[in-house]
Amino acid sequence: MSTGEIYAQAAARVRRRRMRFTLQLERPLRLRFPAALLRGGLGNLLRRRYCRSPSQRCHGRHRCAYCELFEARGEAAGGGWAGRQKSAPVPLAIRCEPGEWAAGRMVVELFGQAVDHGRVIKDAFEEMGERGLGRERVRCAFRADEGWQTVEGCDEGIRRILGGLSRAGGLRVRSESPLRVKAGGRWAQAVGPRLMIVNAARRFSALACESPEVGSLPAPCRELLERAASIPLRQVRWVWTDRHRYSSRQRRRVPMGGVEGGFELDIPDVDLLFFFALAESVGIGKGIPFGFGRVKLETA
Predict the structure, then answer these.
(1) How confident is the model at residue 155 (pLDDT cuts 50, 70, 90)?
(2) Rounded Cα distance, 296 and 276, in Å
(3) What is the 3-state secondary structure (H, E, C) of the chain?
(4) Of the given ranges (8-17, 34-43, 161-170, 271-280), which has the lowest mean pLDDT?
(5) For FRET with 231, which of 56, 77, 178, 249 sits at 20 to 30 Å CA-CA?
(6) Above pLDDT 90, what percent of the chain?
(7) Which pLDDT band holds residue 9 (cuts at 50, 70, 90)?
(8) Which residues, in sequence order, are bridge partners of residue 263?
């Protein structure tokens, strides 16, 4: 069985909840980094409401909603490749770039056991909107679409991504938000197929370890990564983008940069194409709860 087939079977058992919200502000509020404000406000509200020991993390099976969604585990659960990671990823993604904010749209994604907190997320955003956002306390109506209660396997989202691609043309891979990915211990100034596949597999394998019915997954095999590294690319363009957010815990502005751009290639084999779709489905790199790490596949 190929690595792609192993991950595809696991994707069917890792749950995902995708919650789409429409936003209606009582007056304009311009934000350069809206996902940071939304993530910070959500975390602050959940911490005050649910965390019984705010001075220390919850542990074990009885983690509160705040720690489940915001506090990274000390190490990834399980053994194998994911178990060697320094920390498991937070199973929360907030997708709201400035253009989406201006259009009144936002998406929240939950993975694994965190899907059980869908109602908590919905109620929290509604309360945030009533209290007001930002320093100006601008009130906002958050309305979840009718499908917010739907829970599906990650494989269903991957099938929709692959179904939207034409086998006749090439493949365009582009970032929808900055990609904050490390290579050789430094922030990468460009993201190629190999680095993208490694990071997609790393994030998904750690999320899968948090799902009791999945367990540990193997790292992508060397032959697969060599094929990815040898793919001829066209229209390669990457630009570093600097962003900052204010951390109330650290009481200072924190720099958060990443690369934006993309590349084109011929439609790759089935295994490689699966991992590209996995990158779009779960995101890659650091800062995903802040809206970073979004990848989009299109027919070139």
Answers:
(1) very high
(2) 9
(3) CCHHHHHHHHHCCCEEEEEEEEEEECCCCCCCCHHHHHHHHHHHHHHHHHCCCCCCCCCCCCCCHHHHHHCCCCCCCCCHHHHCCCCCCCCEEEECCHHHHHCCEEEEEEEHHHHHHHHHHHHHHHHHHHHCECCCCECEEEEECHHHHCEEEHHHHHHHHHHCCCCCCEEEEEECCCEECEECCEECCCCCHHHHHHHHHHHHHHHHHCCCCCCCCCCCCHHHHHHHHCCCCEEEEEEEEEEEEEECCCCEEEEEEEEEEEEEEECCCHHHHHHHHHHHHHCCCECHHHCCCCEEEEEC
(4) 161-170
(5) 178
(6) 66
(7) very high
(8) 173
- The encoded tokens of residue 1 equal 């069985």
Length of the chain: 300
The pLDDT assigned to 254 comes to 82
Which amino acid is it at 278?
L
- Residue 40 burial (C-beta neighbours within 10 Å; 0-12, 13-18, 19+): middle
What digits encode the pLDDT tens for the residues 19-76?
999 999 999 998 889 999 999 999 999 988 887 665 555 654 556 888 888 876 555 5
* pTM metric for this prediction: 0.90
Fill in the amino acid letter for 80. G
Please name the residues in contact with 178: beta carbons below 8 A apart, sequence gap of 6 or more.
Answer: 241, 243, 256, 257, 258, 259, 260, 287, 292
Burial class (CB in 10 A: 0-12, 13-18, 19+), 126: middle
Q: In 10 A of CB 6, how many CB atoms? A: 14
